[in-house]
Design brief:
4 helices, globular
């Protein structure tokens, strides 16, 4: 994944925003933060796209962001899903 291919719109004091950033950090995915609390113009960018909440994560050329903290969707879209995660979520796995 090329640098700056991931943009995350966040607001301060939001647990879901913190979780998205932590996931990206844990997977060593480079990203750009667009803080809507400190920079209201970032919120206007979101609102022009019909988005009124954070976090909103734009990945690559995707025009639709991932809204909120959706761990599986973020991992799948980023292509960083752990093999152990897949083993642990297999409904046929009785472990």
């Amino acid at each position: 994944m090329n640098e700056n291919n991931v943009r995350v719109y966040i607001s301060e004091g939001n647990k879901d925003c913190d979780q998205v950033l932590q996931l990206l950090d844990n997977k060593n995915v480079p990203y750009v933060v667009k803080n809507v609390t400190k920079h209201p113009e970032n919120m206007k960018e979101l609102q022009m796209q019909g988005i009124y909440g954070t976090p909103a994560t734009f990945i690559g050329d995707e025009t639709e962001p991932i809204l909120g903290y959706q761990e599986e969707k973020l991992n799948l879209t980023l292509g960083v899903l752990d093999k152990d995660y897949l083993l642990n979520t297999n409904p046929d796995n009785d472990a």
